[in-house]
Amino acid sequence: MTVIPGLVRRAAAEVERHLREGAGALVRAGRDLERSAELVRLLPALVERLSILEQAVRVQDTELRTIRTELDSLVGQLNDRLLPRLDERMDDTERDLAAVATSLIRTGRDTAGNRTRLEAAERRVADLRSKVAALEQRTGIWRDLESTVTRFGDDLDAMRARMAPRPAEPPDALPAPVQNLTDRPA
Prior knowledge:
Blueprint: H1 3-82, H2 86-107, H3 112-162
Helix pairs in contact: 1-3, 2-3
């Protein structure tokens, strides 16, 4: 008969173990319910923040599109005003220089009258050379400006592409635990 009390003790111990596991499961379920209730309570505030952020991104996208349009317009205006026939003007100036040099060779440097003309022609050649240099410098500056504005426009397009709104997650998926956004470390 000693076997029956041993079996009873083992059965009691097994029942006690199952009761403790069940109590632990109830405690965990209670914590999950509290956590779920807190997440449900925070959900409207998070949805409101998300809609505010989406609106801000839309406004920024609109502003960036406006800036891109203005930049394209500015480049077009600059091209229309500053660059018409620039290469033709440089060719004309080079032809003028060649004509002046040819006339200098023809005039000769021996007589006093020719010397005066020669000095005036040399001054003219120096003026024309300085104008050509200034024109080449302006052309280089303009081309640098145009490439910088183009790169800036490409950077704006890349930034706009990175800020494109993402599609919303399905409502039935539970979000990961959310920490309060105002308590974020700096």
